[in-house]
Amino acid sequence: YEQPITIGDLTVTGFHSDHDEPGVMALLVDDGSRRYAHSGDVRLNGPHAERVHAWAKRFNQEKLSLFMLEGTSFSFDTAAPVEDQDHPSIPLTEMSLQKQFQTVLAESPTLVVINPYIRNYERLAGFQASAHTAGRQLVWEPDDAAVLTTMTDQKPDAILGQTISLTDIARDPQHYVLQNSFDHLERLTDMPITTYIHSNGEPLGDYDPRFAQLKDWLEAHHIPLQFMNASGHASREDLITLAKEVNPRTIVPWHSFHPEREAEALDAQTNAAVVLPERDLYYDFDELNEEE
Question: Is this entry keyworded Hydrolase (predicted)?
Fold first, then answer.
């Protein structure tokens, strides 16, 4: 991070940021006379918000000619990104999510199943630590176990098919949490399950056809579905806050099903000019933002 690299006539610097996929960066681009920036996927309510405020301060000092700002939260009819818009759950932070998970474990008499986002290895580690707090072991599928082992300082409690079987789990379900991916739903058939927790795992939301399949399968097998989400994307209010912190001349919304909603909010609440690019058009930065 913060090690400039040269790409043609441009100097590009990446800044450590915060998202539900650790390792994400915001980018600063310098062409020798002007500076541009790209927010990357970003949130302000995560465990590393200080990183975001740090690069926002740096971008402000650079007096950006243009800032590309993500707008995922403007994609949905709800105020914050949710998986099921027909039945929106209360968005959590990474910290409050683990507290809620511990409460669910304490109140569950049998097996708890989780479907987490495999790329969020910090949350994977958090789930296992919370399971230990509740006196349970977390059983992982091999792929998630490999991510946990490689990317964190934790070792998997148990790996399904290698160190433990479904029969072992079914014998003492109150002692375990089982991580289960969508491709292996059939493993849950006839298991004694108190609840199935969907925590930003795949399918990611109701815009994915597999999401309806997941809900239908769980309902058919009488397995209660619970959402426990912490978005990797800033709320609408936090995006406006971030835009004001950076204070660029021009903002281009990106990463949204409805960038026009973000553009309207930015136009009303910031001093920046807002540009909604059109497909197949090329833009000249001098025309977008002439030097004063």
Answer: yes
Q: Is residue 33 predicted with pLDDT exceeding 70? A: yes
Q: Are the beta carbons of 83 and 215 closer than 8 angstroms?
A: no
Give the C-alpha separation, 60 to 248, whole Å.
Answer: 7
The CATH code of the domain that includes 130 is 3.40.50.10710
Q: Which domain holds residue 138?
A: 94-227
* Dist. CA 113–CA 178, nearest whole Å: 5
3-class SS letters over 129-196: HHHHHCCCEEEECHHHHHHHHHHCCCCCCEEECCCECHHHHHHCHHHEEEECCHHHHHHHCCCCEEEE
d(CA 15, CA 241) in angstroms, rounded, equals 19
CATH of the domain at 266: 3.60.15.10
Tell me the sheet residues that pair with 103: none
Number of Cβ within 10 Å of residue 12's Cβ equals 17
Task: Give residues with Cβ within 8 angstroms of 192, minimum separation 6.
Answer: 110, 111, 170, 173
Q: Do the Cβ atoms of 216 and 181 come closer than 8 Å?
A: no
Residues of the chain above pLDDT 70, percent: 93
Distance of alpha carbon 108 from alpha carbon 230, whole angstroms: 22
- pLDDT at residue 48 in the model: 93
Q: Which of 227, 254, 270 is the last residue of a domain?
A: 227
